[in-house]
Design goal:
Helices cover 66% and strands 12% of the residues. The chain is rod-shaped, with a radius of gyration of 33 Å. The chain is of the alpha+beta class and 424 residues long. It contains 14 helices and 9 strands. The protein folds into 2 domains: 227 residues, Up-down Bundle (Rhopdopsin 7-helix transmembrane proteins), CATH 1.20.1070; 189 residues, Histidine kinase-like ATPase, C-terminal domain (Heat Shock Protein 90), CATH 3.30.565.
Length: 424
């Protein structure tokens, strides 16, 4: 009776912890759906470990079923590495883990065959006491490797967090290692293994720590999205009134051309408004179409300007309003005062990136003095920031006074072409 009360005194708070963890995971708004499923599976496995301990304790006291006790012992040694692998799926979801599952399978095979081979453990039929076999340390070795990997990957992934925060997962690892040492040093059967207690408590504290990271990542995503919205709302079409005046003048000279220009102007405004609401990447073809609508209207105002397109790559996505503002900047501040102004828009696929180039033969400028033109600076910075934040790309600018300006944008293939392929 005393042993049963001791078991209850330990098991009751563990069960409450797991119930609370399961409920928290179920309602946590910051955890991803796939992570929620993994955490609930971890909770279920922790419950099974408690059940395994209770079953073993009962069988030890009553000496009722040797085969079942062998099975429960093997089950406990087999489940612990699985819990660590599941946590690895949360920290490092990418990549296959066939090696982890292979080691876990070998570990389970050794323990489940031990009643016949005595490789890992043997339970005496006389007193139901477990004795270690020559490979008794297999579970400790496999779980230890997974625990070290989990700790290292946790620290690497969240290396930007404060060091004092990183002490939480490190402390969990130390507690688990300490519980293993205590279990090894004990000479008698325990109602609940120290490792089981450490696994449950460690899972709870590790999830609490993960929750903080999920909240922080959510806040970063919100801030990034907000910055994108702010930058997008700062982008305004600068030629509205001039375009309307051009269309009005065309109606006196060439009504059919005026009708087509008015239709283009309407399409441009509609696409511009859609782009201002667009926070995801758009196909490069859509951005080029938007740029063409703008350029055709501007060329009517400035017959000395030509805009050429050399498009060799159309299989990727970019932030909305990326090319059009750069072409607008090239015309307004570069080529419109030239006798033969030229803007060239080109796309090209490189080995691991998509390259966009906007080149003009305008008056050029000193890049060091770009901050003196606040409007131009804001427009370029908007494009640069959105390219970096939304698709991990880069934008470079080079300009020579009297010769022209070249803007190059590089979009990583992983964030451009692959997304387009999945869409199709």
């Amino acid at each position: 009776m005393t042993m049963n009360m001791n078991s209850l005194a330990v098991l009751f708070p563990l069960l409450l912890l797991l119930l609370g963890l399961g409920f928290t995971v179920s309602i946590d708004p910051y955890i991803r759906r796939e992570h929620r499923r993994i955490m609930l599976l971890i909770v279920a496995l922790c419950f099974s470990l408690i059940g395994q301990n209770v079953g073993e304790d009962t069988l030890y006291v009553h000496h009722s079923n040797l085969a079942l006790k062998n099975f429960l012992s093997a089950f406990g040694y087999s489940v612990r590495p699985v819990i660590l692998i599941l946590f690895l799926y949360i920290i490092r979801p990418e990549g296959k883990k066939w090696l982890h599952w292979t080691l876990t399978g070998i570990n389970a095979l050794l323990y489940f065959t031990s009643p016949f081979t005595k490789l890992c453990f043997e339970i005496r039929a006389s007193d139901y006491v477990s004795q270690r076999g020559p490979l008794w340390f297999t579970c400790i070795l496999v779980s230890g490797l997974f625990l070290i990997e989990l700790l290292l990957r946790t620290i690497l992934r969240y290396r930007e967090t404060r060091r004092i925060e990183q002490m939480i997962p490190a402390s969990v690892a130390i507690i688990i290692a300490g519980s293993v040492a205590l279990d090894i040093s004990m000479r008698t059967e325990q109602p609940v293994a120290f490792l089981t207690i450490a696994t449950v408590v460690g899972s709870v504290f590790y999830y609490i720590w993960l929750h903080f990271q999920f909240v922080r990542e959510h806040e970063k995503d919100l801030m990034a999205a907000q910055r994108v919205r702010i930058m997008m709302t700062q982008i305004q079409p600068h030629f509205l009134f001039n375009a309307l005046n051009t269309i009005r003048a065309l109606y006196a000279k060439d009504p059919p051309l005026a009708d087509r220009t008015l239709e283009d102007f309407s399409s441009y405004l509609r696409q511009n408004l859609e782009s201002l609401r667009q926070t995801d990447l758009v196909p490069i073809t859509k951005e080029l179409e938007h740029t063409r609508l703008y350029a055709e209207i501007e060329v009517l105002r400035f017959p000395n300007v030509r805009v050429e397109y050399r498009i060799e790559d159309e299989s990727f996505q970019i932030p909305a309003l990326t090319i059009q503002p750069l072409v607008e900047n090239a015309i307004r501040h570069g080529v419109r005062i030239r006798k033969d102004g030229l803007v060239i828009v080109s796309t090209f696929r490189e080995a691991d990136a998509h390259r966009i180039t906007i080149e003009d033969n305008g008056i050029g400028f000193d890049p060091k003095q770009i901050h003196s033109s606040e409007e131009t600076h804001i427009g370029l910075e908007n494009v640069k920031s959105r390219v970096e934040q939304m698709c991990g790309g880069t934008m470079t600018l080079s300009s020579t006074i009297g010769e022209g300006t070249i803007v190059r944008i590089y979009i990583p293939a992983a964030s451009g072409a692959e997304k387009e392929d999945r869409r199709k």
